[in-house]
Amino acid sequence: MLHGEEHSRPGRPRVRRALRTVHRRLREVRMFARAMVSPHHPILAQIVPIRRCNLACTYCNEFDAFSPPVPLAEMQKRLNRLAALGTTIITISGGEPMLHPDLDEIIRYIRRHGILATLITNGYLLTAERIRALNRAGLDYLQISIDNLSPDETSKKSLKVLDRKLELLAEHAEFAVTVNSVLGSPVRNPQDARTIALRARALGLTSTVGILHDGSGQLQSLASEHLNIYRELLQPRQAMFSFAQYDRFQENISQGLPNHWHCRAGGRFLYICEDGLVHYCSQQRGRPGIPLERYTREDLERHAALEKPCAPYCTVSCVHQTAMLDAIRQNPRQVLLEMVAAREQRDPGYRPPALVHALTWMFLDGPAKRVLSKVALRLLRARS
Ligand SMILES: C[S@@+](CC[C@H](N)C(=O)[O-])C[C@H]1O[C@@H](n2cnc3c(N)ncnc32)[C@H](O)[C@@H]1O
Ligand code: SF4
Ligand code: SF4
Questions:
Q1: For residue 7, what pLDDT is reported?
Q2: What CA–CA distance (Å, rounded) separates 48 from 169?
Q3: Cα dihedral sign, 151-155-160-164
């Protein structure tokens, strides 16, 4: 059985890392509080600074072998626009974002806007010096993808190649690190995901697991061996949104069942491609396909409200998570209590994270708490 608590990470400087963690957690609480009081701003935007990749995973439709990086000035314009729309988290993805020559400046620019900066990478280009540069730029979260123990024709994102990178991250990173593995039919040895998760957690890093989707973001049914490992790895985690991760979405997905939810992509979640167009997500490109510079608050509201036919079998978990925040906003008492009860049932030793305690305190019960919660939101400067 795996446990999600972060082990103490080796190396220095621990104090600096601890201070950065506290600061990041406070900004996360603020992000959450804003999502609670304002229903329309984008909670999370994924942005592609370069479509090119140095690998060619066979399950992936998000890369090419030739595209140039988006110029820094153009990236800054797009980031300004996302900030003006009120975006609270920006994830830099790709292609392989570490191929962008101005990645550190892009991260710095996101942070200058007061936005949480996260990065998804295949990790091949990480070195101690690059990690220290990402610290200096102010990166908040990094997700490194590792799919198997040894490279095969599906994926070269292997523990064999990337274990040294994990050690470097454990030693030098001041930002939070999550190791993500995907499960699904092209992955030859699903039990590799367990070994990768154990290794990550032994190094004090967080681990997550995702389910492979087809070319339109839809679930590909999981064989029983994959399913068992997926369930086993759905354990408490410390990543962003950890309070929202153990819900019915994942249970249904793991069983191949549809979810009844409202996808607010195009509003609460945006995917900005290398051409600066807004799409619902990486798997629904072309919808709506409007240039970001012309994307308005009305567009946010309109597209968030539209029913998406791809929703029932969607596996795009970051969009599920933003939807979870809206479910909490609309019915905080019921959703928070249900989430905690469901977790306690699965894991009798479960103790809700401090954030859930704070939220329960802020959003539940009694007139005195209502007044205090208003004061807390003011202090967090969370009004939109
Ligand atoms: C498109 S990659 C871009 C960032 C970077 N190149 C990487 O691999 O981490 C972002 C994430 O999407 C995941 N991904 C790509 N194709 C997928 C698919 N068909 N199903 C599920 N996840 C997928 C990758 O494993 C990775 O974690
Ligand atoms: S490394 Fe990332 S972007 Fe490149 S092919 Fe693999 S999943 Fe796609
Ligand atoms: S339901 Fe939403 S997130 Fe999922 S594939 Fe469709 S548009 Fe993308």
A1: 46
A2: 23
A3: positive
Query: What domains sit in the chain, N to C, each tagged with a CATH number?
Result: 5-352 (3.20.20), 353-384 (no CATH)
200-254 pLDDT per residue, tens: 999 999 998 888 888 777 776 778 888 888 878 875 444 444 444 445 677 787 7
Task: Give the pLDDT score at 211.
Answer: 85
Q: Which ligand is nearest to the CA of 142?
A: 1
Report which protein residue has its CA nearest ligand 3's atom 1: 311
Q: Is 308 in the pocket of ligand 3 (CB under 6 A)?
A: yes
Q: What are phi and psi of 77, to 5 degrees?
A: -60, -45
Nearest to 2 by CA among 230, 163, 177: 230
**Ligand with the closest atom to the CA of 65:** 2
The Cα 285–Cα 281 span in angstroms is 6
Residue type, 230: Y
CA dist 162 and 224 (Å) reads: 28
Whether the pTM exceeds 0.85: the reply is yes
Report the separation in Å between the CA atom of 199 and the middle of ligand 1, taken as the mean of its atom positions. 20
Cβ(60) to ligand 2 under 6 A? yes
Catalogue the long-range contacts made by 134-139 (C-beta closer than 8 Å, 24 or more residues apart). Answer: 134/104, 134/107, 134/173, 134/175, 135/172, 135/173, 135/174, 135/175, 136/104, 137/103, 137/104, 137/105, 137/107, 137/108, 137/111, 138/107, 138/108, 138/111, 139/107, 139/175
Residue whose C-alpha is closest to residue 300's, from 45, 74, 114: 45
Q: Average pLDDT, stretch 13-38?
A: 88
181 touches ligand 2 (CB under 6 Å): no
Write out the two tokens for 240.
């962003």
- Beta strand 277-279 with 269-272 is antiparallel
